[in-house]
Amino acid sequence: MVTTSDTTVESAAHLIRRVFGGPTADGDTLAPETLASQMEVALGAKRDLWPISTIRRFGDVLIEVAAGRKKSPNHEVRWLNLYGLCLRPGFGVPGDDVRTNNLRAIGLNKLVFADDLRCQVEMLVLLRRIAGGINASEQQALYRTYSSHASRKKKGRVNRQLEYEQWRLIASLEHLLGSTRALLGDELVAKIRKEPENAIWLWSLGRLGARIPLYGPLHSVVAAEIAGEWLKALLDLSTFTAVTGSAVVLIARRTDDRSRDIDDVIREQAISRLMALGIAEETIQLLSKCVPPERSDALRSFGESLPPGLQVVSSSNCLLSLPAFHSPGPTFLEPA
Prior knowledge:
The chain has 15 helices and 2 strands. By secondary structure, the protein is mainly alpha-helical.
C-alpha cells in the first residue's frame, strides 16, 4: 500500500483549495480539469492507490470548499467525481455517515448546473460509489427518482451514457426489496436479449441477481427461482462474452444456502457452458462448491477499485461486512 506523509497529503489538499476555494491574494488558482493528475503527482501515486485515510481527508476538504463547485460546470463535474472517489464505498471509516450526510447539508441533491449532461452523469457515479452508506429509506427515494428515468419509453434518442449510469446506480441499491430488484432484472433481461453484448446491461443484471450481496441484507437477494430464469436466458444467448460469464458467476455462485442457491440442473448447465469457453478452473469452482469470498469478489461486484486500507470482512452472506456499516446510516435526500 502507498505510504503518504502529512506533508504530501496537505500539499494535495492545498491543490483542492486552489481549485474550489476563494481567490487568493496572488491569484493562485488551478484549473479543475488538471486537479486529479496534479494530486497524483503530489502524492506520487495513482488515485486508485491512495489510502483510505488519505482520501477521507480529501473528502473533508472537498466539503469545506463545496461552494466552489458553483464556479462553473467544469468545477461541479470535478467536485462530484473527486468526492465520489474519496468516499467510496460510502462506509468503512468512522465518520462516514456524517460525510455522506454532509452531501444533503450542502444541497447536493440539487445540481447547480442541472442541465449539464456531465454533471448529471457524475452525480449518478457519485451515488453509485457511495450507495453502501445510504440507508434503506433514502435508497427507496433514489429508486423512485431514477427508475422512471431509466425505464422510460419515449420518442427520440435517450443519451446512452446517462441511461447506463442510471441503471448501474439502481442495480447497486441493495436495500431495495428483492421483489423490486426482481422486476428491474426482468427489464434488463429483455434489454440483453436485444443487445447480448451490452456490458452495462450484463453487469447490472449480475449485480441484481448476485447470490451474495455486496453490502446489503439477505432479504435484498432476488429469489432463487427468478435468478434461475435469468441464468437460463443468459445461457440461451447466441453471443457469450467475458462479461456474460461474470454475470453467470454472480448469479450461479454456490452459497450452500438452499433459499438462495439456484436449481442444480441449471447450475450444471452454467458450469458446462463456462468450461466450454475455457473459463479458469478457480472461477468455475465458485459454482461447483461453496468457496469463501475474497476481496477480489467484492471488487467484481463493486465494479471498480476499493480504497487500500479498507478493512473488508467477507462472508457467504455479505462481501463487504464492516462494523461501520451497521450504524443507522445518513439521511441524504428529502423524502419523496
